[in-house]
Write a structure and sequence with these properties.
Chain A: This is Trimeric LpxA-like protein. The complex is a heterodimer. Chain A is an all-beta fold. Chain A has a single domain, classed as UDP N-Acetylglucosamine Acyltransferase, domain 1. Chain A is 3% helix and 29% strand. Chain A has a nine-stranded mixed beta sheet, with no helix packed on it. Chain A has a six-stranded parallel beta sheet with strand order 3-6-9-14-17-20, with no helix packed on it. Chain A is globular and about 50 Å long. Chain A starts with 14 loop residues before the first strand and ends with a helix. By secondary structure, chain B is of the alpha+beta class. Chain B has a domain of 217 residues. A six-stranded antiparallel beta sheet of chain B has the order 2-1-22-21-16-18, with no helix packed on it. In chain B, strands 6-5-11-12-13 form a five-stranded antiparallel beta sheet. In chain B, strands 14, 15, 17, 19 and 20 form a five-stranded antiparallel beta sheet that branches. In chain B, α5 crosses α6. Chain B is elongated and about 110 Å long. Classes of the chains: A mainly beta, B alpha+beta. At the A-B interface, β21 and β23 of A face β14, β15 and β19 of B. The structure holds zinc ion (ZN) (4 copies).
Chain lengths: 216, 580
């Protein structure tokens, strides 16, 4: 685990690479960096807004004397947050006060461009299409594919291996047994026009290491 | 499910090859080649919709040596669970309570979004339970307040909901309903007797206070089912009792009654032809008498409140009573359960996939994927450089804007998951089927794809065979030279790529008839999508199946090789042809 604040001096490029291999765009907007953890080899693209400043206030007891930094966003390994997406921890208003809850995003999650995410938890190997809105406290289990332009209503639980789409989103199918498996070494993700031509590539719901490597 | 371009679908020919459930005759060989040669697979044929799958949805039967799609597998339900609370529901409960969650999981009857239990507690006057509670939709903000339903507790919503009707009225339990029916029947007979005795019509019935409005759907159902039960009981030839005198405490009569209603014993018990049953004759027997005033009231209501108070057909069909008309009659919809299923080959019954039965697990005990057994085809435009997702580069090839009449080169990439090299033969019709005829040429239809050896081999011998051409990119972004017919484009450890030249056809006729609008030329939906059917034939030598080697092969030496052949149709979706 490392904080994106732990940056090393790098030559000017699109991305700042951290010690654990996280790639954070210089054009991304990250607030409250101390409350954000990135698992390593995770990509934060340009114009992404991570709202680490919206962190839980009441859960942390400071009685021990130590000042514990509350986590508001924790993102796993090899996860890609694409251009223009907003990650905002969910909140609830109780007795006139706004309380934020920490958000957890797993490994190998792909968040498509221009999505707004307020889920409470997103498991690993989830593929989220572009322009998707995920309302507060949504729970997304493993191996889920969310079609582009979907709106996931608040508090919805999406069981693993489902395909979800629509406004409001509903489970419209199951991902195939082979989803996320890049068969025979050279997997090819036709999805976004990547791959082919012998370059190692990536598949939706699969291991995103190759994708992360290709982003420079 | 629509996929972004370019995509590849694989056709499972299980319908045409007519899967036999008899495992003795295995269709281990593909159908005769001449049969296949005669027709071209047409992706626009309506039937093709049901045979085309993305590779990751296909399984592979190692015994039949064929791909298996959803049509040629048998599904076995391992368990049921609620998609919303993720609790497993045992099969005994499924049988008694049906296929819906009986916890607190409900979907909005207006927009299908999952509903949440919210408190309506007045902060100025807090209640001990924190209630009253309602079910509310976080998406469209419909709530049970609109149908006049509030709950006392925030748990056990299902049991509370079965007792509250719309408007807050209590729904009688089945027992109460039976009692009420008996009471009314008695009243009716008493009234009849009195009428006969006194001869007068106007004997006042004082005890009619509970009579309010037409009977509900549940009332009618329970009345009708009670009526049929009594009819069946009275029709039984061996019935020694009259239906009114059945002694339920007697074990013999009780077991007889139980047998009557179980369908399995009905054949055995049939001795004589039963007399035809009487039909329901009154409301208490489940007869629905059409009341024109109800229709008139409905029409009045539509006049007053407009269409917005009526329901769409999808909203109606999702309801427990799908005959309702107005939004005031809506009920929250209990979540439909989901299943975890294993799959077997329909032909030889071997297990093809079996997930771990635990709900929380996403692992498989057995999973035989087609993508580990079948060549993977993928297409991309030759001119594209690798694009990063999320950062649309202006140089990216626009698959949704193919230029009519301009030869465009695509790279068809074939990768081999098998540990044996494969000889591949590709075939495609020279013009695509459909109204827009595009010309397609595979520049190198016959080639070899290397074996899928260890990944490290590839890394160590970094340059296997550098055929990479020194391409000079022309001003139009197309490589100018070095595309040669009969030569592969590039190859690696377990992959080969070849060039396909496509001349997209003209949207709206053959280019010359621009301006003329012939109804024949009217394009159907998605007619401008350029899809290329490609027939793939594979030849390779593989180790003889362990099972077959055991079966009396006289030269059954270890490592025996056999020649194998597989053939299938694929459809490559290239893109959409631009309008001129
Ligand atoms: Zn099939
Ligand atoms: Zn449930
Ligand atoms: Zn709703
Ligand atoms: Zn089989």
């Amino acid at each position: 685990m490392s904080r994106p604040s732990a940056r090393k001096a790098a030559p000017k490029g699109e991305y700042i690479e951290t010690d654990s291999g996280n790639k954070v765009s210089r054009r991304s907007a990250i607030t409250g960096t101390a409350n954000i953890t990135l698992g390593g080899r995770t990509v934060i693209m340009a114009d992404v807004h991570l709202r680490g400043d919206l962190h839980p206030t009441r859960a942390v007891p400071s009685s021990s004397g130590k000042d514990v930094t509350p986590t508001s966003i924790s993102i796993g390994r090899c996860t890609v947050i694409s251009t223009g997406s907003v990650i905002k921890p969910p909140c609830r208003i109780s007795r006139g006060q706004v309380h934020y809850y920490p958000m957890k995003i797993g490994d190998n999650v792909f968040v498509g461009p221009h999505s707004t995410i307020s889920a409470i938890s997103i498991a690993s190997h989830v593929h989220i299409g572009d322009h998707t809105t995920i309302h507060p406290f949504v729970i997304i289990k493993e191996n889920v594919k969310i079609l582009p332009n979907s709106v996931i209503p608040a508090n919805m639980v999406i069981p693993s291996s489902s395909v979800v789409g629509g406004r409001p989103a509903r489970v419209i199918g199951e991902v195939g047994e082979g989803w996320g498996v890049s068969g025979g070494g050279a997997g090819v993700g036709g999805g976004l026009g990547v791959g082919g031509g012998g370059e190692k590539s990536w598949v939706e719901g699969g291991d995103l290491r190759e994708l992360v490597r290709s982003i420079k | 499910m629509a996929q972004p371009f370019p995509y590849t679908y694989y056709s499972c020919d299980c319908y045409d090859s007519k899967i036999t459930p008899n495992p003795s005759k295995r269709a281990s060989q593909p159908p005769p080649a001449d049969d296949e040669d005669e027709r071209t697979f047409d992706p626009r044929n309506p039937r093709s919709n049901y045979s085309l799958y993305p590779l990751e949805h296909l399984l592979y039967c190692e015994d039949c040596q064929q791909i298996r799609c959803q049509r040629c597998v048998i599904e076995e339900t391992l368990n049921w669970f609620c998609p919303s609370c993720l609790f497993e529901v045992p099969s005994s409960v499924i049988k008694s309570d049906g296929n819906r969650c009986t916890r607190n999981c409900y979907n909005c009857p207006v927009c299908t979004s999952p509903m949440t239990v919210n408190s309506l507690e007045n902060p100025a006057d807090p209640s001990s339970s924190g209630g009253p509670w309602i079910l509310a939709c976080p998406y469209c903000h419909w709530s049970t307040v609109e149908i006049g339903i509030e709950f006392e507790k925030h748990t056990g919503i299902t049991s509370q909901l079965t007792r509250i009707g719309n408007g807050g009225k209590a729904i009688p339990t089945p027992k109460e309903r039976d009692k009420e029916r008996e009471r009314r029947k008695e009243l009716e007979t008493m009234k009849k007797d009195r009428d006969v005795l006194s001869g007068s019509e106007d004997s006042p019935t004082t005890d009619r206070g509970r009579d309010d409005g037409p009977p509900s759907h549940d009332d009618i159902f329970s009345n009708l089912s009670a009526f049929y039960k009594s009819q069946i009981a009275s029709q039984t030839p061996s019935n020694p009792f009259s239906p009114h005198e059945i002694n339920f405490s007697s074990p013999s009569s009780f077991s007889r009654i139980m047998n009557l209603y179980s369908s399995t014993t009905s054949k055995k018990q049939k001795r004589e032809k039963p007399a035809p049953m009487r039909e329901a004759a009154s409301v208490l027997e489940g007869l629905i008498i059409h009341d024109p005033s109800e229709d008139a009231a409905a029409i009045e209501r539509i006049k007053k409140e407009g269409w917005s108070s009526t329901l769409s057909s999808t909203q109606k069909f999702a309801q427990p009573i799908p005959t309702i008309r107005f939004d005031s009659e809506l009920r929250p919809i209990a979540s439909l359960l989901c299943t975890k299923r294993g799959k077997r080959c329909r032909s030889c019954r071997h297990i093809l996939s079996k997930p771990e039965s635990k709900i929380t697990s996403t692992r498989y005990k057995i999973k035989l994927l087609a993508l580990n057994h079948i060549l993977r085809l993928s297409l991309r435009a030759l001119s594209t450089t690798t694009i990063q997702p999320g950062t649309p580069s202006p140089l990216a090839f626009d698959y949704n804007n193919l230029k009519s009449g301009i030869p465009t080169h695509f790279l068809l990439h074939l990768s081999n998951p098998l540990f044996d090299p494969i000889r591949v033969t590709l075939a495609t019709p020279s013009t695509t089927p459909g109204k827009i005829q595009s010309r397609v040429t595979i520049l190198c239809p016959q080639f070899e794809v290397g074996a899928n050896t260890d990944v490290w081999d590839d890394a160590l011998s970094s340059s296997l065979s550098p055929i990479k051409k020194p391409t000079s990119i022309g001003p139009d972004g197309q490589p100018q030279t070095s595309i040669e017919a009969g030569k592969i484009w590039d190859r690696g450890r377990n992959w080969t790529s070849v060039i396909i030249e496509v001349i997209p056809g003209f949207v709206g006729g053959i280019g010359f008839s621009v301006g003329k609008s012939d109804p024949e030329d009217e394009l159907d939906e998605d007619e401008d999508v350029l899809e290329i059917p490609i027939f793939v034939r594979l030849e390779f030598e593989a180790d003889v199946n362990a099972e077959e080697r055991g079966l009396g092969d006289s030269r059954g030496e270890r490592g025996a090789r056999e020649k194998r052949e597989e053939a299938f149709w694929t459809v490559v979706g290239v893109g959409r042809i631009a309008k001129m």
